[in-house]
Amino acid sequence: MAASTSHDPNLAATPDAEFINVLMSKGKRNTAAYIHAECSKAALGMHSNAALNTVKALLEKILDPTKPISDWETIDWCKWLMAGGSTFDEFDSIVKDYDNATTCGLVWTPNFVAYRCRTCGISPCMSLCTNCFKKGNHEKHDFNMFLSQAGGACDCGDTSVMKESGFCDKHGPKAAVNKSAAPSNLMCVAEAIMPRIILRLIQYLRENSKVGAPDFKTAIQEAEVYLKMLVDLNNMGALMRHVMTTALTNPQKYRGLMDPSTYAGESRYDVYCRDSYKTYQDAIKGLPNPEPPDEYKECASLQEQLEHKTFLEELVFWTVAYEFPQQVVCLLLNMLPDPDYKEALTRAFVLHYSRISMMLERSVDPDTLSNRVVHVSVQLFSNESLAVRMVDQLKLLHVMVISLKYMMSKILIQNVLHDQDKNFHYVVDCGRQVMKEHCYWPLVSDLNNVLSHKPVAQRFMYDDSLLEMWFDFLSMFQGMNVNQREMGEHIEFEPNTYYAAFSAELEASAYPMWALVSHLRSPSSALLTRRVLSFCQTALQDWLDAVNFNDPKVNDSLQVSFHLPLHRYYAVFLCQAIRQKCATLNELLPSTETLHLLMMHPLRVQEYIFPKDLFAD
């Protein structure tokens, strides 16, 4: 077979188009056998550059980005090549024989029946598929069967999420015992071609992000067969999964295939790659992040300019940009049994987290997007050690609180309590989509998830900036949705903001509060209790000043707000401090004058609900 050769004898031959055409004319089985033989030699250190260049030239033809991504011939060629001369079914069977996976990782979508065992669970978010639950020992355990709303994944075998005693006989550290090692050349072709297969998906996602391109939903539907191929490859077990995750997380593979300086020529493929890179840059600019405080602008997860270093990081970016398409989400989650990949995915997710909040805010279908986001995040943040690393290395807690604050800061209106001319406090507008559609719910759900880990909650309460930002956030709900009693005429339609206001206070304020309190059970946590109490008292005083409430005898009994999250925090943590005996009540309470002011708004709520004339004779 003819091949063009470099003048430098130290460089490998670069196959020309004629060589590739002749090779492919031999048929898929013979071509695959030839490629497998070359890659096997490369694995032994023989002719490595020649083998890689042949694979590169062959895949540039097979995975031509101008062809439809789900072209049957393309997918069939990829399968034959990986099988190395055998049929794909034969290859699939052999690879599965060497599967040494220790975790289940079954991924499910909404409306799937799953189980949760609180006796075995380390994380409150643990869940099990039906097979693993029934094959595990959960007799007389505290468990429940539930219909998954957002989707999930089976945690059987994951020692960071549940106890080993609850594992089924197929999963856990003991499941890999006595498993024989696979032949060294079994996966050599898969290792060589997998980066190119992933590259084709990235190219497709880039291309369909252009202005005027088909909508994202249609684009994903057209790629469904290709995505299914990737999911099927993952389902072959730990061997193939490792090949995929290595390609996704290897910076050198990404740089070698995506560096724009590599495509400086005038070939059709080089021109395509340069255009693809420009489209990618435009897409990054179109997905901004919230403006962080100055002291956090250098934080990797809050920087204005995204810089991707792996295929996985860019794939997560497109997952966010395409609003978490179910097929891509399932692909990402299916590979979680690989622990190194799980950490890499979590890092990539956190790096894009602030941008996810922006997507939630502007989505036309925030409910579906919210479920898809939580489908991913709950799998990542339920691992305590991983959550702690994200907090320490990427400031996850700061990213979450900053994202929540930014989301609410865009819907603020002037508070109308008391004298409006002297009220300088701003609260959320409960009539806006962010509130009515619960766009904040995924962020709050994730915050509650990470706060369920004691080390994370402790870091939250030890951090001055976090506590200050958190009470600034709560202040946006303090006194919202003011109710005005109308005495002059009949109100035909009641406002429909009640549900939005009460839901927000419950989900965004009360749930995190109880998550924090749950870790303050021992006398050793007294310092944290007092810290939270101190910041809360400062926030309350700032609020009283902002609404100009300096006299308990203010006469405006015809208006009331039921939403006093700062008062609730103060009462709960004050009670907790007394229970812990970290101080006496006299030591903790503010001055009598301030205490009178603090009491008036809760008393006004009580009076509004139970007016005095209700019990009059």
TrEMBL record:
PROSITE patterns: ZF_UBR (PS51157). It catalyses: S-ubiquitinyl-[E2 ubiquitin-conjugating enzyme]-L-cysteine + [acceptor protein]-L-lysine = [E2 ubiquitin-conjugating enzyme]-L-cysteine + N(6)-ubiquitinyl-[acceptor protein]-L-lysine. Signal peptide: none annotated. A zinc finger (UBR-type) spans 102-173. Its EC number is 2.3.2.27. Pathway: Protein modification; protein ubiquitination. Residues 102-173 form the UBR-type domain. InterPro entries: UBR1-like (IPR039164), Znf_UBR (IPR003126). Pfam families: zf-UBR. It is an enzyme of class 2 (transferase). Keywords: Metal-binding, Transferase, Ubl conjugation pathway, Zinc, Zinc-finger. One of its GO terms (biological process) is ubiquitin-dependent protein catabolic process via the N-end rule pathway. GO terms for molecular function: ubiquitin protein ligase activity; zinc ion binding. Belongs to the E3 ubiquitin-protein ligase UBR1-like family. PANTHER family: E3 UBIQUITIN-PROTEIN LIGASE UBR3, UBIQUITIN LIGASE E3 ALPHA-RELATED. Ubiquitin ligase protein which is a component of the N-end rule pathway. Recognizes and binds to proteins bearing specific N-terminal residues that are destabilizing according to the N-end rule, leading to their ubiquitination and subsequent degradation. This is E3 ubiquitin-protein ligase. It comes from Trichogramma kaykai.
